[in-house]
Design goal:
With about 200 residues, the chain is an alpha+beta fold. The chain is built from 5 helices and 6 strands.
C-alpha cells in the first residue's frame, strides 16, 4: 500500500472496489499485525487500542482493515447512530483515513451517537428491562416507534401493575411515566425516547 508524505496509507485505489473489511479473511480468525512505525500510525494504533483490546500492531491492523473497506451496505454506512465501542472504532479509522469516502457519514453518526449516549446516561432513553423511576430513568412522556409485540407496565413499590398495555403492532406508542410510579418495565418495545 503506498504511503502519503504524512505516513498515512493511500487507499484511493482501493475504495472504488467497495470491499468490506472482511474480504479475504477466510474463517474470520485474523491474527495479522502491522508494525507501528510512524507518528500517524502510533496515533491510529492508540485510538484502535481504545476501541478494542490487543497489542498496538493488532489494533493498527484493525484500523487498516476499516480504512480499506468501502462497502455501501456496511453497518457503519447504513446506521444512523452507533454504540460507544463503535464510536471509538470509527474514531480510530478517522485518525488514519480522515478523507475516507464514508468519513462524512461516520462523523454524522458519531455526532448523533453523542446525543443518544448522553440520553442513555441521563435516563431519558432506555430499552427493555425494569427501571426505577427517578433513579434509573426520569419521569416524563416517552415514545417508541415501529413496535411488534410490545408490552409495557408501570409498577408501584410492591411490584403491582398500575397501568399496562400489550401492543401487537403500531407505528408509534406513547406512555407518560409519572414521578409517582415506582418502576417502569417493558419488553420487545425497542428503545424509549423522551418526547422533547
Amino acid at each position: 500500500m503506498p504511503l502519503r508524505a504524512d505516513g498515512t496509507p493511500d487507499y484511493s485505489a482501493l475504495w472504488p472496489l467497495k470491499l468490506n473489511c472482511d474480504n479475504g479473511m477466510g474463517d474470520m480468525e485474523v491474527s495479522e499485525a502491522v508494525p507501528v512505525i510512524t507518528p500517524v500510525q502510533r496515533d491510529a494504533a492508540a485510538a484502535g487500542m481504545r476501541a478494542s483490546a490487543g497489542d498496538p500492531s493488532e489494533a493498527l491492523y484493525s484500523v487498516y482493515k476499516g480504512c480499506g473497506a468501502n462497502d455501501p451496505n456496511d453497518y457503519y454506512v447504513t446506521a444512523s447512530d452507533y454504540s460507544e465501542g463503535q464510536v471509538l472504532e470509527l474514531k480510530s479509522w478517522l485518525t488514519l483515513c480522515p478523507k475516507h469516502p464514508q468519513a462524512a457519514k461516520w462523523r454524522a453518526g458519531i455526532a448523533a451517537s453523542a446525543q443518544v449516549l448522553e440520553e442513555q446516561s441521563n435516563g431519558t432513553r432506555f430499552g427493555a428491562g425494569t427501571f426505577l423511576v427517578g433513579k434509573e430513568i426520569k419521569p416524563g412522556t416517552y415514545f417508541v416507534t415501529n413496535v411488534d409485540g410490545c408490552y409495557w407496565e408501570q409498577q408501584n413499590r410492591n411490584g403491582e401493575t398500575i397501568d399496562n398495555d400489550f401492543i401487537n403492532q403500531a407505528r408509534r406508542v406513547q406512555v407518560r411515566i409519572r414521578s409517582t410510579d415506582y418502576a417502569f418495565s417493558s419488553e420487545r418495545c425497542g428503545e424509549w425516547s423522551r418526547v422533547k
